[in-house]
Structure formats: C-alpha cells, structure tokens
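Dear H.,

Thanks for agreeing to be a second pair of eyes. The structure we're designing against is below in token form, covering all 149 positions.
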C-alpha cells in the first residue's frame, strides 16, 4: 500500500466517523425536539383534566363552547403522545399546528397587552416547529421510521 492510499483510506475512515457522529446528533436532536413539543401538549391536556370546570369556564369567557373541552384534551394528549412516539407524526403535527394557531387567535388576541402578544407569538412559534415536523417527518428514532422499514 502506498502513502497516498493510506492517507485516503484513513481520511475516509475519519469522514465515516464524522458522518456517524453527525447522524447521531441529528437523531438525538430530532427526538429531543419532539419530546419538548410533546411535553407541552401532554402537560397542557392533563392539566385541563385536573382543572376541568375552570378550563371550561375560561373557554366560555372567550366565546368557545365548553363542550369542546373533551376534544381539546383528546387532541392535546393523543397528539402529544403521537409526536413523542413519532407515530403518524405529520398528521398529528399538522393538527396541533392548526390548534396552536387557532388558540393564539382565540385566546391571545389582545396584542396591545405585552403578555398576550408574547403568548400569541409563542403559539405561532410552536406552530412553526410543528410545521417543520410536517415537512420533515419524525426522523430515525420514531415509530413512523420503524413501520416503514
């Protein structure tokens, strides 16, 4: 083996290691990002169960029928679980993105109040993160990926 082939074989080994580390970082980042998004919806949905009547009253004060609360809880909990597990991720993310935008417009529409302005754009940012999931899917560490192999 000559010096040139030793350098190129050692270089490809180094680039292979770099590619594996990059893939591992990508996989971990996708999973942790999904975890953080899911956690928000899971905790919110479970919190609504614990404060059911107060949440229904808050919804009614914003002109939303309290009878929709079971659907909201189901969407948040089941959608959050789907995002966490990476199952039907694109569908769950699309539904939660729409829900987040609808909640922003319905509950955080007093943009003259700085807190409401921040809450509005928080919901918009969450929808943006969810739309990235819609575009790219859940990634390698997901049920979606396992089920398509």
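And this is the sequence the design step returned. I haven't edited it by hand at all.
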């Amino acid at each position: 083996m000559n010096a040139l082939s030793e350098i190129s074989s050692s270089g490809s080994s180094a680039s292979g290691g770099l590619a594996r580390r990059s893939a591992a970082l990508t996989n971990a980042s996708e999973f942790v990002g999904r975890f953080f998004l899911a956690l928000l919806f899971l905790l919110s949905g479970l919190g609504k169960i614990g404060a059911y009547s107060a949440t229904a009253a808050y919804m009614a004060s914003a002109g939303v029928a309290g009878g929709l609360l079971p659907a909201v809880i189901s969407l948040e909990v089941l959608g959050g679980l789907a995002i966490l597990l990476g199952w039907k991720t694109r569908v769950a993310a699309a539904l939660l993105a729409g829900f987040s935008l609808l909640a922003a417009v319905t509950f955080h529409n007093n943009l003259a109040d700085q807190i409401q302005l921040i809450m509005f754009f928080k919901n918009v940012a969450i929808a943006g993160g969810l739309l990235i999931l819609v575009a790219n899917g859940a990634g390698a560490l997901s049920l979606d990926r396992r089920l398509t192999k």
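Two observations from my side: Residues 3-148 form one domain. The chain has a mean pLDDT of 92.

Warmly,
E.
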